[in-house]
Design brief:
By secondary structure, this protein is α/β, with parallel strands linked by helices. The protein contains twelve helices and twelve strands. It has a six-stranded parallel β-sheet. α4 links the parallel β4 (96-99) and β5. It is elongated and about 55 Å long.
Amino acid sequence: MSFSKLKKAAVVVWWLLVLAPNSCWSGDLRLLVVLSDTLPAYQSFANTLKQSLPESVQAIVLENPDEISEQPLADIVVSVGMKASSLAVSQSKVPVLVVMVPRTSYEELIEQKSGKDHAPSISAIYLDQPWERQLNFIQAILPTHFRIGILYSDRSLINMTFLRKEASKRDVKLITKRVLSEDELYSALDELLASSDILLAVPDNMIYNSNNIRNILLSCYRSGIPFVGLSQSYVNAGAIGAVFSSQRQLADQITESIRFFVQSGKFPQPNYSRDFTVSLKPEVARSMGIKLPTADAVKGNMYDVNGGGQ
């Protein structure tokens, strides 16, 4: 066994010995949090994560992911965003937990690294929400709206077969429109809105970006079609609602994943965030003649629909 493997094994065994069942963590764990950028959202997330971690975890935040190879050896790397994750997976020699990256992007990243040298243990907590949860959310807030419109491009990487199957389980119909280029975005949107009851946003930065989102929202509002967003920022901008995982919820799950690693020597399997937040915009709903339930009622109903919430 190589010295590096012996060292890793010794670290894991030591952590298992010092951790009594159900006790607080003991000793020190060195955590390197690598951000993709210096954007306020990333910095805010790093601060939230540090607040969630026990005092025994020594967290160092790296705002320039290009410098990852110059950092002192850590026990675990948490990579935040796609750029940081790509560099961490390819350069880190210690376990990497990928966060704030959608599932499809994470799977592409792992596929690109397949067969190459990379971190010995890689896992993820996906940024996006599972389709089942999204559909349950729509059914909970708009139970009489049965035609869900989805605008997508080749960047969306949507499994339409799976999504149609999930929609069929809920007796709703999926109306889809492919956008080949940004030049045809609004003509495709108008066509889709004419045959839909709802527009559901999907992670696709060709369609849903800062240049387009305001006009998309205006088109929906003028057509009387509720727009379901991806985050709190969409709701703030005028979406009728969104289901997402907050920074605190993601940070708490990262802490649990690190605890699991300390106890078992590996991360949990890649998965979506277990907990989620419901945000609604009642004033937008009222302008469309829609009465929304409370956010608490919606979240409760999401667990009741088809065994949902997942």
